[in-house]
Amino acid sequence: MRRRDLLRSGAAGALAALPIGRPIGGVIAHGAIAARPVPTPDQLAWQQRELAMFLHLGVNTFTDREWGDGTESPAIFDPARLDATQWVRAARTGGFRTVILTAKHHDGFCLWPSRLTDHSVRASPWRGGGGDVVAELAAAARSEGLGLGLYLSPWDRHAPSYGQGERYNDFYCGQLTELLSGYGPVAEVWFDGANGEGPNGRRQTYDWPRIHRIVRTLQPHALIFSDAGPDIRWCGNERGEAGDPNWCTVDPAAVPYPGADGPGITDALQHGDPAGSVWRPAEADVSIRPGWFWHPAEDERVRSTDDLLELYLSSVGRNANLLLNVPPTTSGLLHDSDVRRLAEFGARRSALLATDLAADARRTGDPVRRIMTLALPAVRTFDLISLGEAIEHGQAVAGYAVECRTRDGWRTVARGTTIGHRRLQQIASVAADRVRLTVTAAVGPVRLGRIGLYYGGESGR
Ligand code: FUL
Predict the structure, then answer these.
(1) Confidence band (pLDDT; 50, 70, 90) for 367?
(2) Backbone angles phi and psi of 371, in degrees to 5
(3) How far apart are CA 283 and CA 281, in angstroms?
(4) Ligand 1, residues at Cβ distance < 6 Å
């Protein structure tokens, strides 16, 4: 049954009343509840990384467009000052742990010298035709300790074989093989759902099982992103907003293939499904500017630091990862404004989360009543609560409340739905010496992680 049906059919009460695991001699008894999905070690590590940076670069950078039509000449591609180390350092300073490059966008132009097409950097004036953006980024990411991700658009508006079934699938799988075998470890492979017409007006049916097999064989630790997973799902919008609630579990039938359209799909991507049979956490992608590619007219429209913090709260703070796009300019460098903004974002986020006011609290738990109490050594003022579940055991919390003991007695300061890896909840500033978290609804055994309390004041907003 889908989540919406659960709620509509009145089964929500049953959901809330589901028993949770009770410790009996150190063992969690799950009663009649079937085993719930848990992340693989790679999915868990991915979710703990929280932040990735997207890099959209290609012929569009030079035509000032968002989608090329495949007729662009490689002669226009010349990012003469390209410095992947600058990109990676800017990402690291902002706290990003992975960089994901558009190795090929919908226009079909390849940022690596693919042996399968002439439509690549090899035909461009950049580095005299001897350059390879993927190689430069892979080397920079490795030396700065960041993961590498690659976006290879299935939709190719240049390839003559596009729309010709097997012929294009062979071509696409060949390109994927080049990328996954030539550049060391790849952490994430990003499959966009766009499936438009090719140069001959025909559409292509992608061979997803074959594509996935290639990734699994060549890069067994790489996670596959697409609307339909299988490892990471799209959050359902390009605004960087995860749903609330947001489950890491999904019903795999809800979004059967990338780019699937129809009623309920956005909802399924946004919220996941508490009854879902597979673990498929959400990634929230959004750009630091209005467009994905660099446009000079948008240099004044780089998101503010406040805005980036809001994005962090609406993605990572809602149990999703944030994939923030920062596009290189025609020079091949990130624009100064973007670099500055990334650094400010990193500094503001670190300052906000630097002091956990609950670090020295005495914690007492009542797992049977699903309550955890923090006794602070003194009255403390905070306005941000960080909650987490130990998701290696799955995700179970469907509702919670946070109460605080203030000068005027106990009062509820926050209520919410899912927690998952992380739930960051801003509240009106409160001064309290006791904090109580109560899980009000759960769909399985609850394993709470740490509770953190922070104070951002004006700067945390
Ligand atoms: C979309 C694409 O069409 C955009 O150009 C961009 O690459 C975005 C991340 O995905 O579907």
Answers:
(1) low
(2) -125, 140
(3) 7
(4) 66, 192, 194, 285, 292
Indicate the helix (H) or strand (E) that contains 39. Answer: none
Distance, CA of 96 to CA of 138 (rounded, Å): 15
Task: Give the nearest ligand 1 atom to 325 CA.
Answer: 9
Distance CA 321, CA 44 (A): 11
Q: What is the DSSP string of 313-353?
A: HHTTTBT-EEEEE----TTSS--HHHHHHHHHHHHHHHHHT
Q: What is the pLDDT of residues 183-239, one digit of tens each?
A: 999 999 999 988 899 888 999 999 999 999 999 999 999 999 999 999 999 999 999
Is 317:423 a contact under the CB 8 Å cutoff? yes
Sign of the torsion angle spanned by Cα atoms 265, 421, 16, 275: positive
Q: In sequence order, what are the beta bridge partners of 331? A: none
Strand spans (E) along 77-226: 98-104, 147-152, 188-190, 223-226
Contact 454, 353 (CB under 8 A): yes
CA of 102 to the centre of ligand 1 (A): 10
Verdict on whether the full-model pTM lies above 0.90: yes
| Cα–Cα distance, 351 to 225 (Å, whole number) | 31
Rounded-to-integer distance, Cα 234 and Cα 188, Å: 13
Q: Whose CA is nearest to atom 6 of ligand 1?
A: 292
Q: Among 40, 78, 172, 182, which Cα is nearest to 116's?
A: 172
Count CB atoms within 10 A of the CB of residue 34: 7
